[in-house]
Amino acid sequence: MTKDYMPFHASPRKPRFSAPAGAVDAHCHVFGPAAQFPFAPERKYTPVDASKEKLFALRDHLGLLRNVIVQATCHGADNAALVDALDAADGLARGVAVVNADVTDAELRALDAAGVRGVRFNFVKRLVDDTPRDVFKAIAARVNALGWHIVVYFEAPDLPDLIPFLSELPGVIVVDHMGRPDVTAGVQSEGFKLFQSFMADNPNIWVKVSCPERLTVAGPPYDDVVPFARTLVERFPDRVLWGTDWPHPNMKSHMPDDGELVDTIPRVAPTEALQRALLVDNPMRLYWPEEPVK
Ligand SMILES: O=C(O)/C=C(\CC(=O)C(=O)O)C(=O)O
């Protein structure tokens, strides 16, 4: 395990907020178990095992119904642990994979059959080595043909450089963790305005209003992050997703209580209509389009 790695919260409290029926945790991970699914040799961190059983128990404890499990960098492009979790989820989980340029069409089809609906491109330098943009473009075209979308993870200072590239990618693009704004700069900052105009100019850009625990400087209950998420939910109500980010790898300041994270939802989505869009309608449209939402 990475030195000083913080394990996930052992006993999160029950949220006070009751999520609407059918709510989706649209950003979470499974790690290992390493004995069965070894971590990637090129990884930048080694986490504590975070099993599918623990993830599904947390889902139930928090009053959520479904998960979108996102491949994390510690497993590289080996999606075996992700597929194992999808197989065990009884249709209640979908996945976002990581693939290399040499992935075969048969491997992509197998991931699709397992419930993968997106591919993740990671630009965060502490997590990955650089991937040439032509490689990402080629992968994007191939997964677009399967009807998948693209999830991108970057930090706010990298957005100006990435905009031309991201604008060329086909299909829906989902930005992780609000593009990691500097919350100390405030919602009126140039950086956050740029992010919003990027969304306004490109109707295919969606955003996860997730990860207050990583973005905060003030700490729980995340008063400094809530205005950012609320701004995006109110301005782009049909293009926002929410997720726990469990098991919160690489946290340094504190380990969040997942019950408290759920309780930020009514603060970022203050009406029932916004909560339903954020937690049910939007993720269902992207990940379970074949299921009628009641
Ligand atoms: O949980 C997250 O989304 C964020 C991560 C880890 C990650 O994304 C990865 O390893 O792929 C982070 O900021 O360290």
Automatic annotation (TrEMBL):
Has UniProt tagged this entry with the keyword Hydrolase? yes
Keywords, A to Z, come to: Aromatic hydrocarbons catabolism, Hydrolase
CDD domains per the UniProt record, alphabetical: PDC_hydrolase (cd01311)
> From the UniProt record, which GO molecular function terms apply?
2-pyrone-4,6-dicarboxylate lactonase activity
Question: Which Pfam families does the record match to this protein?
Answer: Amidohydro_2 (PF04909)
Q: What class of enzyme is it?
A: hydrolase
Q: Which reaction does it catalyse?
A: 2-oxo-2H-pyran-4,6-dicarboxylate + H2O = (1E)-4-oxobut-1-ene-1,2,4-tricarboxylate + H(+)
Domain of life where this protein originates: Bacteria
- Name the Enzyme Commission number(s) assigned to this protein: 3.1.1.57
Any one GO BP annotation for this protein = 3,4-dihydroxybenzoate catabolic process
Instruction: Tell me if Hydrolase is a UniProt keyword of this record.
Output: yes
| Stretches assigned to the Amidohydrolase-related domain | 24-287
What family does the entry list? Answer: Belongs to the metallo-dependent hydrolases superfamily. PDC hydrolase family.
The name this protein carries in UniProt is: 2-pyrone-4,6-dicarboxylate lactonase
The source organism is Actibacterium lipolyticum
